Predict the structure.
Amino acid sequence: MTSHAAHKPSGGGHRRSVALFGGTFDPVHAGHIAVAQAAQRRFHLDAIHFIPSSRPPHKPQQELAPFMHRYAMVALGCAGHPGFLPSLAEAPAATPHVFYSIDTVRRFRRDHPDDHLYFIVGADQFLELPTWRNYEALLDSCDFIIASRPGFRLDALRLVIPPEKLGRSAGQDGQKIVLRKSAVHLLTTVSSHVSSTEVRERRARKQTIHGLVPALVEEYIVGQALYR
Ligand code: ATP
């Protein structure tokens, strides 16, 4: 599932900082990698688990490329980035199963109780948070890193957070919203227009996707004739 390093015990007094980055990754693209790199730098992350979802609850109608391809592309996209790890945490199960982020986070928390856990999400997805299962518990369960995305106003993000969750200081230094049990960090150093939709649409129109996805992912998409 992940490399040996991902399961290294947190010995020697260093508390590991680990982020979960979920998505459909259909396909993983340059925007995802830029977000992960910016988060890794700013929060000194030891590991970022890229978690392709098998059946995203919020995109039930969308035709997705098979999990196998999306996972393979995530693995290729992680190549050359120490600390980026493809994860099978939401791989299809033998029986049909919808994965909810709250369960995935709780599982990681249980397996790595000493880690500082972050959840990376784009601004568009964070605005949808109230529709996620058990989102109030999710907000309590780990810190959030919200990546800015062109077209989404970061000041709107506060409105998604129930007022009773705000910490006493209600401190907002522009980059961080303090909650009672966790914190929401705004990652404003990255702004990529790339989306998976654009990659798929360009492929359907027989246009190049060069530069929109990592080189190995481009090779894979072309080689497997995906999104045609
Ligand atoms: P689609 O176009 O198919 O809806 P997407 O490009 O939004 O896909 P996802 O796999 O749904 O990609 O995204 C996974 C996570 O990455 C989500 O939290 C999403 O908000 C975030 N994300 C995707 N693209 C960007 C981007 N360009 N900048 C910041 N965050 C992004």
Remarks:
- DSSP finds seven helices and seven strands in the chain.
- The helical segments are 30-43, 67-78, 101-111, 123-127, 135-141, 196-204, 215-223.
- Confidence is low (pLDDT under 50) at residues 1-7.
